[in-house]
């Protein structure tokens, strides 16, 4: 048997990091088993579905490198759903429900007061056929509901969570067609998964409650059941719901913040699945080799920004310096800095060990633009005492005569400090402040070499 999986996002928002994790697990499973990966856009909700969100989903998947083998849009498959709706109706497994929104709200309130989970009470299920016809002919709006079995159990043999049993009494008569005739999620998803011969449904745990309902639909339609694997939720590091600040952002927002796809893929793959007892760094090819549904955890995955940053830094450093330059350049341009190419390469060489996100390059803008501001506390500390200023001025006069090679600069500065009974730091900090405006930078003498004598002298002369 060849495997087929699908990722089925609704284009009602940008592709979120949680959705991307679901897509990735499906992709890894397909590649690991030599199967097919389908992308299905679930756009039956005309109000909320937007082309721009669909495009965001495509762009994000492409950026992550999760290419699909087949693409479908539910909005283009309405005739198919209609055909199966008719079949189901003919077999007597559905009924028209004429209950109005007000009536349903009332029923729901009643359940709320009784503190019981709401379930449609089946008023219209009991309606005589002729009565239903009469109401329909009178033009009263209706939805089509599925006759859920009222006895017995529905069992999911979940590949991640094991056996999950539902009492059929708890399942309500789900709506298959809205008043405007548009088929609902639960109906389309079953028809599609069956016709697309999806063998494994890998999706978020939040869909578990839909699964017994869908299983009953499979049975009613005479379709063969697929396997189900519900993957765990992603929680924030404090184990609460993942808010936007805690990581629940769109993939494209991660891209804009300077994360690179190799790191995001590795990071997402670790959210709820293990590949080794000791290692955590797995490029896509390695993930494909190792991915097993049996290694997906039952318990929630925790989103950890420190790990993401670590992985991002790691994958940045796997690249060559010209590649890193190409990656950081757009971020500099966006910040209004047009870097000179040979200077950019030198800066990348200096900074690459420290980069966690590509946007960190903006911290090094002093290489490309004038320093106009100085850290106020540091300025106060190093440039208020007249004796310190005098020493600084002496240093800048003397250094003007030496060659701007990091090793020479260091030797000279050490010597100068010693000669004046100072620690090296007492000179390094004010010099760094003059050259960068900051308290931290890569090694000062390397920075000086990259900036060159002319720029350094200008800046040393400007600060006091
Ligand atoms: N369109 C559904 C969603 O966005 C897909 C659920 C499923 O995978 O069955 O959540």
Question: What's the structural blueprint in terms of helices and strands?
Answer:
Blueprint: E1 4-7, H1 17-33, E2 36-41, H2 51-64, E3 70-73, H3 78-90, E4 94-97, H4 101-113, H5 129-137, E5 143-146, E6 153-158, E7 162-167, E8 175-177, H6 185-195, E9 200-204, H7 210-221, E10 227-231, E11 234-235, H8 251-256, H9 261-270, H10 284-290, E12 301-302, H11 305-317, H12 321-334, H13 341-351, H14 376-382, H15 386-399, H16 406-419, H17 424-436, H18 444-463
Parallel strand pairs: 1-2, 2-3, 9-10, 11-12
Antiparallel strand pairs: 4-5, 5-8, 6-7
Helix pairs in contact: 1-10, 6-7, 9-11, 12-13, 13-18, 16-17, 16-18, 17-18
Bound molecules: glutamic acid.
Structural notes for this entry:
This protein has 464 residues and is mainly α. The chain has four domains: 1-72 and 232-318, 3-Layer(aba) Sandwich (Rossmann fold), CATH 3.40.50; 80-177, Glutamyl-tRNA Synthetase, Domain 3 (Glutamyl-tRNA Synthetase, domain 3); 320-366, Helicase, Ruva Protein, domain 3 (Orthogonal Bundle); 376-463, Arc Repressor Mutant, subunit A (Orthogonal Bundle), CATH 1.10.10.350. 47% of the residues lie in helices and 11% in strands. It is built from 18 helices and twelve strands. It has helices spanning 17-33, 51-64, 78-90, 101-113, 129-137, 185-195, 210-221, 251-256, 261-270, 284-290, 305-317, 321-334, 341-351, 376-382, 386-399, 406-419, 424-436, 444-463; strands at residues 4-7, 36-41, 70-73, 94-97, 143-146, 153-158, 162-167, 175-177, 200-204, 227-231, 234-235, 301-302. A three-stranded parallel β-sheet has the order 1-2-3. It has a three-stranded antiparallel β-sheet with strand order 4-5-8. A two-stranded antiparallel ribbon has the order 6-7. A hairpin with a 3-residue loop joins β6 (153-158) and β7 (162-167). α12 crosses α13, α13 packs across α18 (444-463) and α16 (406-419) packs across α18. The chain is elongated and about 105 Å long. It starts with a strand and ends with a helix. The model has no long low-confidence stretch (mean pLDDT 96). Bound molecules: glutamic acid. Glutamic acid binds next to loops. Residues 8-10, 42, 189, 203, 207 line the site of glutamic acid.
């Amino acid at each position: 048997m060849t495997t087929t999986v699908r990722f089925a996002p609704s284009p009602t928002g940008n592709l979120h990091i949680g959705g991307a994790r679901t897509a990735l697990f499906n992709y890894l499973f397909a590649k690991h088993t030599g199967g097919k990966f389908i992308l299905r856009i679930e756009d039956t909700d005309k109000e909320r579905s937007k082309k721009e969100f669909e495009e965001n989903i495509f762009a994000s998947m492409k950026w992550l490198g999760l290419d699909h083998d087949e693409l479908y849009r539910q909005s283009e498959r309405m005739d198919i759903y209609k055909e199966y709706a008719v079949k189901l109706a003919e077999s007597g497994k559905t009924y028209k429900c004429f209950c109005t929104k007000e009536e349903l709200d009332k029923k729901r309130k009643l359940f709320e007061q009784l503190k019981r989970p709401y379930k449609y009470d089946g008023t219209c299920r009991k309606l005589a056929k002729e009565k239903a016809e009469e109401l329909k002919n009178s033009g009263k709006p209706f939805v089509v509901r599925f006759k859920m079995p009222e006895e017995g159990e529905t069992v999911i043999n979940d590949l991640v969570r094991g056996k999950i049993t539902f009492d059929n009494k708890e399942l309500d008569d789900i709506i298959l067609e809205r008043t405007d005739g548009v088929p609902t999620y639960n109906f389309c998803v079953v028809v599609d998964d069956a016709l697309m011969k999806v063998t494994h449904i890998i999706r978020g745990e939040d869909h578990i409650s839909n699964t017994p309902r869908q299983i009953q639909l499979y049975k009613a339609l005479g379709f063969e059941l697929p396997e189900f694997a519900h993957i765990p939720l992603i929680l924030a590091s404090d184990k609460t719901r993942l808010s936007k600040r805690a990581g629940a952002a769109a993939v494209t927002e991660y891209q804009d913040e300077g994360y690179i796809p190799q790191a995001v893929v590795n990071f997402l793959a670790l959210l709820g699945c293990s590949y080794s007892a000791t290692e955590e760094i797995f490029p896509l090819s390695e993930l494909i080799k190792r991915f097993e549904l049996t290694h997906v955890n039952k318990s929630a995955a925790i989103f950890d920004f420190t790990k993401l940053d670590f992985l991002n830094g790691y994958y940045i450093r796997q690249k060559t310096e010209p590649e890193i330059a190409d990656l950081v350049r757009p971020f500099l341009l966006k910040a209004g800095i047009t870097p000179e190419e040979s200077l950019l390469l030198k800066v990348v060489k200096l900074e690459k060990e420290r980069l966690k996100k590509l946007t960190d390059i903006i911290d090094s803008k002093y290489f490309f633009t004038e320093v106009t501001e100085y850290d106020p506390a540091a300025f106060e500390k190093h440039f208020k005492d007249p004796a310190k200023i005098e020493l600084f001025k002496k240093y800048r006069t003397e250094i003007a005569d030496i060659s701007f090679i990091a090793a020479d600069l260091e030797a000279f500065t050490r010597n100068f400090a010693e000669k004046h009974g100072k620690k090296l730091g007492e000179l390094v900090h004010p010099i760094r402040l003059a050259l960068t405006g900051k308290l931290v930078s890569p090694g000062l003498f390397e920075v000086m070499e990259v900036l060159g004598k002319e720029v350094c002298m200008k800046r040393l002369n400007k600060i006091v």
